[in-house]
Amino acid sequence: MNTVKAYIFILSFFFSILLNGQNTSMGNLWVGDMNNYLRIDSNAILVNYYWKYENKSYEVKRAYYYLLINDTLRVIESQSKKDENHDFIIKEKNKDNLRLVPLTQYSRILAFEQMPQKELVFKSQGKIFTDTIRFEKLLFATTNCYGHCPAMTIHIDSSGLLKFKGEKYAVKQGFYQAKLSNETLDELLSILGISEIDKVENHGEFNIDAPTHTLEIHYNNKVKFIKSAFWPFILAKLLDFLMAIPNKVDLQKMEDVEFKFSQ
Question: In this structure, which topology does domain 3-127 adopt according to CATH?
Answer without folding.
Answer: Lipocalin (2.40.128)
